[in-house]
Design a protein that fits this description.
Strand order of the largest sheet: 8-7-6-5-9-10
Shape: elongated
Strand content: 25-35%
Distance between the termini: 25 Å
CATH class of the largest domain: Alpha Beta
Length: about 260
């Protein structure tokens, strides 16, 4: 379940002994974090939380906080290779709630131990990074990425089928020129240039319908300037959140999302 889908549930989380909320900036593209600064912040945040809890003189609460922090550190150690730009964790003293999400958007590092989950920063992030699509054009492959809070909720690719003269949908990451066409071939390029307008015009209402069904607040369009221009002319201005004129079609979905939100 994505973080935005969990948000309503997290609003209801309450534990009189304590609810641990952690926002941790883990942006490895930031040189400071390459030096492990986020690990220092995690260590210092852990220390301050324990000191804060000890002031309550509730030994059981402190014991449970330490246990939850151990679980958090174990989770973070396991996920180091998957770290993106931000990490959000919410867990209760009794351990019946543990919500952890790696985000492609930056967060401000902070640590909280209160009766309820501290969600103010999360709600602010949602205003900055609402449910948004990313449409990646690469000639006859167009990838659709559904994001919220910078987290990928779904992704798939439309590819042009030459035999059936129509778009076919399949999982993202498996895009290839249909029917064995060679994208480096002059004949392929000629056919694409001749038909791009018609093909993209046919795809546009399909994408718009997907955006409507998913209640997305528009989309970022990614690709070469001519391809973006050809596709976006079929969209109203409120559908277009922005344009990223880079050829990212060969990148992973994770890398595409990272680049788009870095430049947005």
């Amino acid at each position: 379940m994505s973080l935005i889908e969990e948000l309503d549930q997290l609003q209801q989380v309450q534990d009189k002994e304590g609810t641990l909320t952690i926002y941790l900036n883990t942006d490895f593209q930031d040189q400071k974090h390459h030096r492990g600064e986020w690990k220092i912040r995690l260590k210092n945040g852990r220390k301050r939380l324990i000191e804060y809890a000890e002031k309550s003189e509730d030994a059981d609460s402190v014991k449970k906080l330490k246990k939850r922090l151990e679980e958090v550190e174990s989770y973070i150690n396991d996920q180091q290779a998957n770290m993106q730009r931000g990490l959000v964790i919410v867990t209760t003293a009794n351990g019946d709630v543990f919500s952890a999400h790696l985000l492609q958007v930056p967060v401000e590092t902070s640590f909280h131990w209160e009766e309820e989950a501290e969600l103010e920063q999360l709600n602010e992030l949602l205003k900055s990074y609402p449910q948004t699509g990313i449409i990646v054009t690469q000639k006859t492959d167009v990838t659709f990425i559904d994001t919220a809070l910078g987290e990928v909720r779904d992704s798939f690719t439309f590819s042009w089928d030459f035999e059936n003269d129509d778009w076919v949908q399949h999982d993202a990451g498996h895009a290839s020129s249909p029917n064995g066409a060679d994208t480096a071939n002059d004949e392929f390029d000629r056919r694409f240039e001749e038909n791009m307008q018609r093909w993209y015009k046919k795809l546009a209402p399909v994408i718009i319908q997907e955006m409507k069904k998913r209640e997305l607040n528009g989309a970022f369009f990614v690709g070469s300037k001519p391809m973006i221009g050809e596709l976006t002319q079929h969209f109203s201005s409120n559908h277009i959140q922005g344009r990223v004129e880079k050829n990212l079609g060969s990148k992973s979905v994770k890398d595409i999302v990272y680049t788009v939100f870095k430049e947005a």
